[in-house]
Backbone:
């Protein structure tokens, strides 16, 4: 092809990250550019750690990486917030925020200013399960003292506010620890992914909705120089491919998850819904956590985190206040 | 001249011994940290956020820091079925050539980046982001870089030793495993 | 030249270096690096460092040094020797009794860890001196220790199955359950071979010190209690903390190391010199094992970067077969890949290509997982890249030659092939237990 790009991803070829995100994006780019751009996908195990693909792009080892900002850590609020934020934007409100309310521009500004990279948002994932648990959990009282396998800012929020003992367990050891009661509850991923691993086989209760990850986006990053070296029409077509893949990936994954839900609800697991009061309280606590970091950054002369927090929270409130006329097609 | 060379080689050995001693201490700390986590989590319902990170960072440092010492003891295994049938001179020649002309430059490239990355992490105060705890990452990278540097230096020393044996220089012992 | 051709050429290149007697880990790193230059030019140095950092960051690998330390301490404190002496009282007249004991112990230790190498090094440190003292032939000793070590992954928990489950999207619990019967079958065949060989060709110095001769039963029982109790208690403690959910299998290794140190202290065998020796041996063996892991990952990452996957895919696509033919072909690919590549890479390369085909041909994924799993056990023993032999060489006494090791593992490889054949003939050996044990709610 006229332009060949090597793109590393975080998983192997038979994962949702390949099938629903990377492959459709690469195919669409080839199609929309009439084959002028060819993206070679490098699955896990080709370029060092899948947790450090941003580094691999900056080192010039690969042209692009499709990954999550979560792997950049939580110390920079923007990275902790753009892709997914506990009690943040949902599967309905995330896309309008991203494409109509300036979300994408903030995201790209941050990548350009702090990392010298260009970011295309190339997928959106749906809500996760809140947890697989050995006891029913509906709210704050049930969470008190629980050994909860969870990560990142959510771990900090539940520890600080609800007396949870966040427990670090390697992904491959969650199943065993849940089975033997070494931990009380664990969050991992979206329903279909959790189902494949089989957490429902060892923990009776499935707690929902996954307010710790209502929706989560993946980005495809490359060096700013790489992006700017591309002809303008190619850039436009790649942006189009990115946006289309973002919409399609969400639908593909939801479709998988619905199938998982149908099967799980037919089984012997008990589904437990979190209290609305707890969800509202958790949102207050999560926002307070974010605002604290944003104010800190602002005091240090970086106003982007504050702009982002205000953008997300402002849009979320606006959406909630006015979207009540929309028909959400599910039974409560 | 030769005497001085032997002194330098022995100095390199001592450096490797020192790094192995450090690895032993770190291993002790690693086991301690793991046991602390088990007790704190199970008996006091107070799991730590740092135990996993500390454990793998120490484990990674341990194996890299001990790599030079392991080479000195000729304990990085090799398949010796055919090798033992080769003439003595050829064995030493091949070893010297490989260590000095192939392995040292290869490891040198890797070590260069190890040192660069450790230095950058130190000067920028970078955090280990792929973790729950997000600690500073330079101590871990420094452990790796020092271990790789040590292995590099020891690989050169062993290459030179093979050259000396090839030349039949007296005092170049033939059995590294017996040297302490 | 097509990069796929280069990918294939990596194999002869590394075999040549290995045959020249160069360090296994260094050879793999060097070949990976030089071929990687084609992909990354000088930046292949970054790739090498990334692989080192990635391996060094693997939490699951933190189980390696504590397990080795456990073996070193048990050996140096004399606890291991006493254990084997006691066992000799009872099984001294059984053909190859001590080798059987070693295999039984390996099975128990394998039930506590899933890490390749940890079981082998630990069991080898403890059992080799005892078997040599009784005049066992080196090839039997080597085969027993290597095959016993391979059980570390065969008997759940198993790192191989954890990785398999995640790449093939299967339940870890079901795979663990599926592995139980094949695992028992394999241990049984190993033991059968040891017994048959003991009858046909008794040890060179036949049962020189039959400890139990003329001993009263009471004394025998007392000695057994004193000798067997500490080591058994240790294994029970490690297994117990896992089963009770107190520790993960990875953490349980450290519990075992502490236990061994406490036993040695209670025995008044713990002193500065012993401790220093045990720890130094541990870091040396850890370094050797983990550098091989680094080297295998480096080699494989370049093999994949050059399009090694496409080579495998091309092979599969080129051949027209029925379901059984497909299974056999895929197993053959795993077998060949396992000659050189380390098992994680074999799974990462093969499974994404195999799994969709299994669906297409209607092959039971759990059954196929077990076949692949057994095939991978075999690759652990087959030269030239036989991790089990490398680990053994790290702890082998001077008199034991590589040739004896290769000869020693051969019969055990045959046992594994028999297990594979039985599994192909009787799929329910793999598929029945998961339906009984993993029932959900
Ligand atoms: Na095991
Ligand atoms: Na092999």
Residues:
């Amino acid at each position: 092809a006229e332009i060949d790009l090597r793109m590393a991803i975080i998983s192997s070829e038979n994962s949702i990250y390949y099938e629903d995100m990377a492959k459709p994006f690469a195919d669409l780019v080839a199609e929309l550019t009439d084959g002028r751009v060819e993206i070679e996908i490098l699955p896990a195990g080709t370029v060092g750690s899948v947790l450090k693909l941003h580094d691999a792009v900056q080192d010039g080892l690969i042209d692009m990486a499709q990954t999550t900002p979560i792997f950049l850590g939580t110390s920079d609020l923007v990275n902790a917030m753009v892709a997914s934020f506990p009690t943040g934007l949902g599967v309905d409100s995330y896309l309008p925020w991203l494409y109509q309310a300036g979300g994408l521009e903030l995201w790209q500004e941050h990548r350009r200013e702090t990392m010298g990279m260009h970011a295309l948002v190339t997928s959106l994932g749906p809500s996760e399960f809140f947890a697989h648990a050995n006891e029913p959990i509906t709210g704050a009282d049930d969470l008190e003292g629980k050994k909860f396998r969870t990560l990142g800012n959510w771990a900090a929020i539940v520890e600080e506010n609800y007396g949870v003992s966040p427990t670090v367990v390697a992904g491959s050891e969650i199943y065993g620890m849940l089975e033997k009661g070494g931990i009380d509850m664990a969050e991992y991923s979206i329903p279909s992914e959790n189902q494949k691993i089989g957490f429902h086989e060892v923990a009776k209760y499935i707690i929902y909705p996954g307010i710790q990850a209502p929706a989560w986006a993946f980005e495809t990053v490359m060096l700013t120089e790489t992006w700017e070296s591309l002809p303008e029409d190619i850039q436009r077509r790649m942006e189009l491919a990115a946006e289309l893949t973002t919409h399609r990936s969400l639908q593909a994954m939801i479709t998988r998850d619905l199938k998982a839900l149908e099967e799980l609800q037919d089984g012997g697991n008990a589904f437990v819904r979190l209290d609305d009061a707890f969800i509202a309280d958790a949102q207050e606590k999560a926002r307070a956590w974010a605002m604290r970091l944003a104010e800190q950054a602002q005091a240090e002369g970086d106003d982007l985190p504050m702009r982002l927090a205000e953008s997300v929270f402002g849009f979320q409130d606006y959406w909630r206040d006015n979207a009540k006329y929309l028909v959400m097609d599910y039974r409560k | 001249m030769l005497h001085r060379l032997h002194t330098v080689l022995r100095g390199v050995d001592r450096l490797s011994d020192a790094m192995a001693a450090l690895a032993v201490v770190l291993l002790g700390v690693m086991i301690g940290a793991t046991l602390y986590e088990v007790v704190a989590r199970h008996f006091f319902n107070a799991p730590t956020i740092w135990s996993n990170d500390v454990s793998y960072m120490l484990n990674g440092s341990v194996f890299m820091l001990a790599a030079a010492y392991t080479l000195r003891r000729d304990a990085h295994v090799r398949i010796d079925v055919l090798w033992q049938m080769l003439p003595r001179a050829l064995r030493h020649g091949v070893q010297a050539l490989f260590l000095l002309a192939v392995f040292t430059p290869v490891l040198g490239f890797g070590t260069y980046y190890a040192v660069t990355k450790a230095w950058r992490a130190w000067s920028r105060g970078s955090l280990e982001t792929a973790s729950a705890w997000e600690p500073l990452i330079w101590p871990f990278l420094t452990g790796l870089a020092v271990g790789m540097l040590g292995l590099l230096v020891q690989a050169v020393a062993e290459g030179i030793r093979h050259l000396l044996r090839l030349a039949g220089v007296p005092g170049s012992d033939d059995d590294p495993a017996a040297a302490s | 030249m097509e990069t796929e051709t280069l990918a294939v050429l990596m194999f002869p290149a590394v075999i040549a270096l290995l045959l020249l007697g160069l360090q296994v880990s260094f050879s793999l790193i060097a070949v990976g690096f030089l071929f990687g230059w084609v992909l990354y030019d000088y930046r292949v140095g970054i790739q090498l460092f990334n692989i080192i950092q990635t391996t060094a960051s693997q939490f699951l690998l933190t189980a390696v040094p504590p397990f080795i330390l456990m073996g070193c301490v048990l050996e140096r404190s004399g606890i291991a020797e006493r254990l084997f002496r006691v066992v000799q009282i009872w099984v001294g007249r059984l053909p190859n009794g001590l080798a059987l004991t070693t295999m039984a112990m390996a099975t128990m230790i394998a039930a506590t860890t899933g890490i390749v190498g940890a079981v082998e090094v630990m069991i080898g440190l403890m059992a080799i001196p005892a078997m040599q003292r009784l005049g066992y032939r080196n090839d039997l000793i080597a085969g027993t220790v290597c095959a016993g070590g391979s059980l570390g992954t065969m008997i759940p928990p198993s790192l191989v199955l954890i990785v398999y489950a995640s790449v093939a999207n299967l339940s870890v619990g079901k795979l663990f359950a599926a592995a139980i019967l094949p695992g028992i079958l394999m241990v049984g065949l190993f033991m059968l071979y040891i017994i048959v060989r003991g009858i046909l060709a008794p040890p060179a110095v036949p049962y020189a010190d039959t400890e139990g001769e003329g001993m009263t039963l009471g004394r025998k029982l007392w000695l057994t209690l004193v000798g067997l109790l500490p080591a058994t208690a240790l294994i029970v403690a490690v297994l117990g903390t896992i089963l009770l959910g107190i520790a993960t299998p990875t953490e349980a290794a450290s519990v075992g190391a502490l236990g061994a140190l406490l036993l040695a202290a209670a025995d008044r065998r713990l002193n500065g010199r012993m401790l220093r020796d045990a720890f130094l041996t541990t870091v040396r063996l850890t370094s050797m094992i983990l550098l091989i892991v680094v080297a295998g990952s480096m080699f494989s990452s370049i093999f994949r970067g050059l399009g090694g996957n496409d080579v495998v895919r091309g092979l599969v696509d080129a051949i027209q077969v029925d379901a059984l033919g497909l299974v056999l072909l895929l197993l053959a690919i795993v077998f060949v890949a396992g000659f050189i590549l380390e098992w994680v890479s074999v799974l990462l390369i093969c499974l994404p290509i195999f799994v969709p085909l299994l669906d297409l041909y209607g092959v039971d994924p759990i059954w196929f997982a077990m076949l692949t799993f057994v095939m991978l056990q075999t690759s652990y023993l087959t030269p030239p890249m036989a991790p089990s032999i490398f680990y053994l060489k790290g702890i082998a006494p001077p008199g034991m030659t590589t040739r004896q090791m290769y000869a020693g593992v051969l019969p055990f490889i045959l046992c594994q092939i028999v297990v594979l054949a039985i599994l192909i003939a009787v799929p329910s050996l793999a598929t029945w237990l998961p339906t009984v044990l993993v029932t959900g709610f």
Q: What stands out?
A: Residues 196 and 310 of chain C are 45 Å apart (CA to CA). Chain C touches chain B through 65 residues (CB under 8 Å).
